[in-house]
């Protein structure tokens, strides 16, 4: 197990280096000049040259990357070009907001999706099964940004039940209740697609297991449907569910970019969209590196979870 863990951590470092280099290269090859954005359209050529030298943008890309990477290894992610603040505290603050949104999506998507899939499989061919399958198909087909706008128009603009933007009310207390009220619409929007995917995959996995001989034997012994489904069938799809959990948790984290933009949620996705538009290279690089590291850790945790849910799995 420890050797496997070390190999995976080394592979994770290689992945993060590759991701950081590709992002760094793409940012510097795309059109746009941070110095021009910072100084405005009336800046003189001498002013632009001087600012590029101060920011180190006049050096070759490889040298810039090596310099940035060496600072990152020391825990220094640089300073934001536009905000004039240290990057690391800013992305950590924003990332905490994204984690709150992602946690809300996870708490909606996984329990409801799993329950929906189990109920649909247990009632195969009935009206409940058809309704659940149809709802899951619709959920997968609808874009998150469109669903978000629809929820804002319905529940915020027309009904006035829930706030449509932000994480806290400007005039509110800023407490837990205020946060939870603001979290309802964006978390629902973020959870819609993963919930639908989890429901469909859970149903498919349960139908495969329900047809096995040991399930028929359990029913022949007189066990109730709840005991057969909950104790015997569901336990044998946990490895498949762990895979789905890892994939969809990563999707929730990445998909938060769209939801944060629609709902003006002050997370890392909303921050990176604005940073890309203003050519704030250090902020984008730090944000992408943090998200990539989180995604890699989620995948590693998922692989380790396999051995926990299925004792037959061993890592050498």
Automatic annotation (TrEMBL):
Gene Ontology CC annotations of this record: plasma membrane
Domain of life: Bacteria
Transmembrane segments: 9-29, 99-122, 134-159, 179-198, 237-263, 283-309
Entries under PROSITE patterns matching the protein: ABC_TM1
Record InterPro entries: BPD_transp_1_N, MetI-like, MetI-like_sf
Keywords per UniProt: Cell membrane, Membrane, Transmembrane, Transmembrane helix, Transport
Membrane disposition: Multi-pass membrane protein
A Pfam family the protein falls into: BPD_transp_1
Protein localization: Cell membrane
Gene Ontology biological process terms, A to Z: transmembrane transport
Domain ABC transmembrane type-1, chain residue ranges per copy: 95-306
Family: Belongs to the binding-protein-dependent transport system permease family.
Name used for this protein in its record: ABC transporter permease
Originating species: Candidatus Segetimicrobium genomatis
